[in-house]
Amino acid sequence: MAEERKISHPKQVKTIIVGDENLPTHFVNSVNIRSGLEEFFLTFGTAIPLEITDIRDLEAINSVNAHALFRCAISRSISISKPKATAIVIRSFVIGLTPTEEGYMATSQISNSYELGVTPQQAIRNYLEFLVDELIWLEKNQENLSSSIHEDFSLLQSHLRIV
After folding, report:
1. Which of 51, 44, 50 is nearest to 30 (CA)?
2. What are the residues whose beta carbons fall under 8 Å from the beta carbon of 4, sequence distance 6 or more?
């Protein structure tokens, strides 16, 4: 019987998509996002562009029917791994991206901080890793936090958990 080995810290494995040469390309111009208890559902579709000749035409439109192409489910328990810690997202939040002269700046409503990156993906990754560092520091120093910083800590804890 093989000996079971445990890794002392979480290991991040990069996914490389292979064999996608024959996948059809669908041009999507509409996305619907719904939230379930355990996951988010993203439905991608196409809608025929509307012909609007007058602003009054636009005001009369409340919805557009789109032909669904495919749907995917994304687990709510997204993990963010750093060399010494892993956190999971327990409550969704939006990360805003703002173009800067040197790339992108990532921010959100759950922290007063921001992080930069050359690409949008790098800015988001840097930001998420910073949030994990911030959460670890706040947990270690929570006895010494001012009341306003303790409120910030509670907000961060309501969205992320160290595992």
Report:
1. 44
2. none
Average pLDDT rounded to a whole number, residues 29-58: 77
Alpha-carbon distance 104 to 137, whole Å?
A: 25
Q: For residue 67, give every residue at least 6 positions away whose Cβ sits within 8 Å of its Cβ, in sequence order, or none.
A: 45, 46, 47
Give residue-wise pLDDT tens across range 101-124: 988 999 999 999 999 999 888 888
CB atoms within 10 A of CB 87: 23
> Which is more confidently placed, 125 or 25?
125
Which amino acid appears at position 123 of this protein? Answer: A
**Residue 74 CB partners (closer than 8 Å, separation 6+):** 39, 40, 41, 42
User: DSSP secondary structure string, 127-150?
Assistant: HHHHHHHHHHHHHHTGGG--HHHH
Contact between residue 138 and residue 127 where contact means Cβ atoms under 8 Å apart? no
